[in-house]
Amino acid sequence: MTNATYKDAGVDLEAYREAMARLPRLIHRTQTPRVLRLDGGFAGLCRLDFANRLFARNYEEPVLVACTDGVGTKLKIAGMMGRHDTIGIDLVAMSVNDCICCGAEPLFFLDYVAMAKDDPPLLEMIVRGITEGCLACDCALLGGETAIMPDLYAEGDYDLAGFCCGVVDRKNLITGTAVAPDDVVIGVASSGIHSNGFSLVRKVVFDLARLTVNDPVEELGQTVGQALLTPTTIYAKAVRDVLGHYRVKNVVHAIAHITGGGLCENLARVMPEGVRVLIDRGSWPVPPVFAWLQRLGRIDQAEMDQVFNMGVGLVLVVSPFYAESIRQQLNHHGLQNWIIGRAEAGEKSVGWSMKTGKHG
Q: Buried b vs exposed e over 298-331: b needs ≥16 C-beta within 10 Å?
């Protein structure tokens, strides 16, 4: 009988070392002045604040904000496309977009990649996407973990999880308690489906409609795969600039990341008692990918509303006096946005207005 080895069990340490050797150059490009280099160490190091005129924040009462998320079965689309360089952007976006809802500045990001076997080129593509996401929000990729588990994953499959840590001064913490009647609801455009609802998407597109990722969709001007793999928008830089513009007054009263549960459910999470919000259906243009999916699957509108973002990836509830100024700042970042509703006195809820809004 031959001696048992780790490689025989499905874990190739030479391939693992090759994979790890590909990553430092990607990770280093995300490192901010807060990061203390510790290559080869067992943890990443990040200074909360430091004496530097350009970068110092001088926190009075810093609060750490932590988030974790994944990208769900959108990973299946990446596998079907054989394209893995954008799924990391989604991974960063899902956690960072949650972090900024508290008014926090993202500090660093950690990733967890679980694979059936070591695949250095594949891992490099995934991490390249993660670093692109981190660069888009000035967030350092501080470290991560690659787990090789041949008995848990089929060959070619992998899973991702992401972890973001941010910081906000307690006086600037956004919790939704400041929302008041007459506040304005600003919807900020999504890039499409983002990273929620893909179990339904895959059932409709591949099981019911029998399409493939390479089939063209004339009304979208893309193939099926291109439309479904569009990365999630990262809103961190725009929100940071908006919040930084008003240093004396807190004019942004609530922020909601529109993910699973849709617009009403996610916005309701940050509403205080005694305030209800009415959303004007039709006050923003719904991206055609949603009409295409709805038609393919004959999906009820109520189901669409509770599963997908329907074109609004982030919501800011703001003081009415500052609404147009905030909209201009979002426009400056290339983010389409619309006034999609208002807050009023009433039992805590978020629902649809009977009137039809106009895009603008």
A: ebeeeebbebbbbbbbbbbbbbeebbeebbebbe
DSSP label at residue 321: G
In order of their start, the domains of the chain are 13-172 (3.30.1330.10), 184-352 (3.90.650.10)
Identify whether the C-beta of residue 30 lies closer than 8 Å to the C-beta of residue 111: no
pLDDT tens column, 256-301: 999 999 999 999 999 999 999 999 999 999 999 999 999 999 999 9
Contact assessment for residue 103 and residue 168, using Cβ atoms and an 8 Å cutoff: yes
DSSP state of 206: I
| Residue 145 neighbours by CB under 8 Å, 6+ apart | 110, 111, 112, 113
- Structural contact between residues 188 and 335, judged by C-beta atoms closer than 8 angstroms: yes
Question: Can you give the pLDDT at residue 305?
Answer: 96
Q: Which residues make Cβ contacts (< 8 Å) with residue 38, sequence separation at least 6?
A: 44, 45
Query: Half-sphere exposure of 336 toward its Cβ, with a 13 Å CA cutoff?
Result: 15
pTM of the model: 0.93
